Amino acid sequence: MAIVVNMPRLSDTMEEGTVAAWLKKVGDKVEEGDILAEIETDKATMEFESFNEGTLLHIGVQEGETTKVDELLAIIGDEGEDISDLINGTANASAEAKEESKEEEKAPAETESKEETSTEADLPEGVIVVTMPRLSDTMEEGTVATWLKKVGDTVEEGDILAEIETDKATMEFESFQSGTLLEIGLQEGESAKVDALLAIIGPAGTDVSGVAANFATSSAPAKTEEAPKAEPKKEVSKPAPTSASTQRPSAPTPTPVVDGGRLYVSPLAKKMAEEKGINLSQVQGSGENGRIIKRDIENYTPAASAASVGKFVPSGQEDFDEVANSNMRKAIAKNLAKSKFTAPHYYLNVEFDMDNAIAFREQFNTLPDTKISFNDMIVKACALALKQHPQVNSQWFDDKMRLNNHVHIGVAVAVPDGLVVPVVKFANEQSLPQLNAAVKNFAGRARNKKLTLDEMEGSTFTVSNLGMFGIESFTSIINQPNSAILSVGAIVQKPVVKNGQVVPGNTMKLCLACDHRTVDGATGSLFLQTLKGYIENPVTMLV
Length: 543
Known about the structure:
Elements: E1 3-6, E2 16-22, E3 29-30, E4 35-40, E5 45-49, E6 54-59, E7 66-68, E8 72-77, H1 84-97, H2 103-122, E9 128-131, E10 141-147, E11 154-155, E12 160-165, E13 170-174, E14 179-184, E15 191-193, E16 197-202, H3 209-226, H4 230-237, H5 239-247, E17 257-258, E18 261-262, H6 267-276, H7 294-298, H8 327-342, E19 345-353, H9 355-364, H10 374-388, E20 394-396, E21 401-403, E22 409-411, E23 413-415, E24 418-420, E25 423-424, H11 432-447, E26 461-465, E27 484-498, E28 501-515, H12 521-536
Parallel strand pairs: 22-26, 26-27
Antiparallel strand pairs: 1-8, 2-4, 2-7, 3-6, 4-5, 6-8, 9-16, 10-12, 10-15, 11-14, 12-13, 14-16, 17-18, 19-28, 20-21, 22-25, 23-24, 27-28
Helix pairs in contact: 2-3, 3-4, 10-11, 10-12
């Protein structure tokens, strides 16, 4: 007997949900506990598992669409079962409930549903269209960094098809179908909106040229109806030509010849090498058949004898290079601009005596297999101080303020595309060596874009350290929804006054940026006093 699955209430404040991705398609077998879909709520994107067994007979909400809690999401039952009464009954009930508020939206939705049904009917038997997935809750478009399969390759369920760059990280995208890769819709280095054609998988030898052309033609109007803004329309209507003209004016698979031999390199890797002035003949490829791919350029360390030189420009001649903004760079710009212009920032500057901290670190690092940095000590001190000042460990939302009783510290890490903030969870409960290992691990994987979304979410406070680059003092923009961020400068040796005498000393300047909506000046000052006690007497962090 068929069972109607409604949009679940996945959070206490959830009133409607958006289907970010379906992990099952119509006709698939569903077991109890299988993940049906990823649903975006008002707080996060969460996996929704099935509590029933059977065949997925109907999908009521397509990817990217939104509906109220308890509205029809899907129908599960026996294969071939007639569910027309259930669909019609649910549709009629839904129409009556929404007759006043959504009368105008009903017709376009039905038209789009019919177009999708007809498109599916036109697909050759066994052919599956793979679209650009939504790999993060804020992702609007993705860039294909590397294809791990090529046209004609056999694809098994679970195989990694491609590496896709989102606004937060570069992630592996695995296939949920088996078959032969018949068509690639986006070349390496090209970008497209979520749900745009990514690839086509099906039986070997199947002609899918018409499928690709019809998908591009039929999907453009649908996208325009959903998002009638000018900018997305331009990118969705012709994703391939736009990306190609911007990122790769030449053929999609260049193979430059070096010393009479053929050098295999992806278009994105070649573009990055040109921008960085890297000689591709000196790069060891890690891709298939020794192919040079993006990560090889990112991890490339030039030989000591190879001095980097700037581009030659004749005297008196204007010259510039244009580099397309990456998804990560665009997301950083959007988030920081929002934070700077919505949160009322103010700054508290202090200077700490670091003599005891230096001595403590030297002594601590004499322990076998132990090495900690000043940054580890600062993170630990902040974590302990935040437990005593929950107001600084708070988060601001439009309708409430959250005072966190746990401490998750974000540590800003510079990467080629900008800045990422991996999060050290429960930092106050970790020892200094544990913090050192965690931060090192995060920093290494951040530079290779291998961090998961979960590792970059949930911070309650942020530390940004430019002291290692010789910066004595600076201010930072708050990482919302956090209420504060600490900017850490370099340790400087200079004359200081101790016991009425001028003696050599070591000091460090710090700047606490606070959101005045949650942290008052006195509250921020008390936090810095507590932090000063831990930094200037680090042995207290071991108690």
